[in-house]
Amino acid sequence: MSHRLWISTGVLAIAIAAAVPSIITGQAPAPAAKRTAAANKKSAVPHTPWGDPDLQGVWNDATSTPLQRPTTIGQKDVLSTENEAEGFEEQLANDLNRDRRDGGAEVDVNRAYNEHWMDSRRLKITADRRTSLIVDPPDGRIPPLVPLSPERQKIRADQAASAARFNAGLPLYAQDFSLPVRCIIRTDSPPYLPTIYNNDFQIFQGPGYVTIVPEMIHSPRIIPLDGRPHIGKNLKQWLGDTRGHFEGETLVIETTNFRTDPGVVYQGANPATYKITERFTRVDADTINYEFTVEDPMTWTKPWTARIPWTKIDPKEQQYEYACHEDNYDIVHLLSGARLREKKGEVK
Amino acid sequence: MRMRFGATTIGLIAAAVAVIICLAVLPGVGQQARNTNPFPAYRPPRMADGHPDLNGIWQALVFSANWDLQDHDAQPGPRPEIMGAYGAGPAGQSIVEGGEIPYKPEALAKKKANFEKRMTVDVSDDKKWHATGDPELKCYMPGVPRATYMPFPFQIVQGSSPYILMAYEFTSATRTIRMNSTQESPTDSWMGWSRGRWEGDTLVVDVTGLREETWFDRAGDYHSDALHVVERYTPVSPYHMMYEATIEDPNVYTRPWKISFPLYRRMEKNVQLLEFKCVPFTEDMLYGRFRKQSSN
Lengths: 348, 296
What we know:
By secondary structure, chain A is of the alpha+beta class. Helix content of chain A is 23%, strand content 19%.
């Protein structure tokens, strides 16, 4: 029973986390030491018996370093001193901390549950002291949007209306909920970005294949390396269709054939023109550098690239099954709550 | 991939030659082998660790077992007035050793009730969420062994780590086989807790920690949370594995029982698991009664 509750409240927490903006300011000095040790450590990259770079293992991508550089930090892409890095990290951690009690009861409730539920790794900045996960463009920010066509404006407006009904506690039907809340896709959809918990990925490899299994929603990306073409253009998938190859020590994968449903590709890009390329490079025994580049001339003025370190974790810290749809009580709670409020005449 | 098929084709020819020689020299043995085992002795390709290479995309062809594990006639679907032959199920012979599942007398009533309410879905009460309705109908993860004989392929990814992945097309379910692990299941789950070991060329997988809500088929065959499944995957040719599962649950059956059938390697040049993310297909059925009615 308790784990069912956990999963259903998790659905809500994701929705809330997505809605809470990060505000980062200032810096504070503090002692530090080992941060660069991990970054500098470099050992021979292992290979599988059949000769591919070995990426097998359970990896975690949590970090507090934000995707986009906070405007308050200025132009600095890498913090040069330990003190600066500590201050940045502390500020981010304070902001992300769920055990704080400031802001009153409503704010506290909206923070949902406390640190017990959270991935503590998400309170650490990247070992290379970057101020944003985006490494290109150099300002560390997602490039400006291009003007959207009227059709796409309508899609976005419809999505915003669904989200508004959800946020007001008045969803009309299950399809008003976002894809993650409906348990269709979550952080299993590329690009892989850190979130509040369940940041674990297990990589399996066999001759001719690399397979990535994110903990949320358990959908594996099974990637053929034999150079075969993508599936036919009339076949569309929620996670797209992925092909890969090794360039030296780097696994390069490209994903196409995404479905056109709103919310499937990152930030409402245009599925037909959206392109995502991901690179996995094992830089030492405990680290994979995960880098992704997204481009879509119908959405962003230029391509952009982010880099996120994946850290190897103790295999005993295994993945757990993420059964989301199987006990998705909150869809029913929220829908029946909305109907009840209508019946009571609280809303029309 | 292509290289492997090349090698396995050569292997098949070699095996065929071996059979012919065997039949010519020992006709009696050949005859006997045909009666009990259609496959001649086979040595599968190896991984670097010396164990058989089970990588590939596999599928059972006894998928009528998903309608009913035991002998059953062809049958109309639950809503023939709208589904016609689309909803109908094929006849099938029992894949249960001895033909019948050894239910305790009192457990048989529950199976019958499951079947009668296989399409009764009511999610209005959290506590009764799983009380009725086939989990397959609701797009819930199918559990073990049902995932193996559903009419969808699955892929084995086996490398050089102590973990083997089994990935199923149906609702993107996965399970990790932990080789030589002594760790007990940390919690119950839909796909269970799988620990593997090699017995000769057979991959033996011990599955515990299965949630009690999964069924074995649309006929309502079921188990309790005491379910214990031991699976055996034995490669018998480049293109076949024999699959066997021993099913034990003292709460429901009078003794352990066994199912077995071959798994076939999918040979299409472009074969891959496609998505069967069925959640969107179930939302109107599960949640439709809670939507805002258009009459308002």
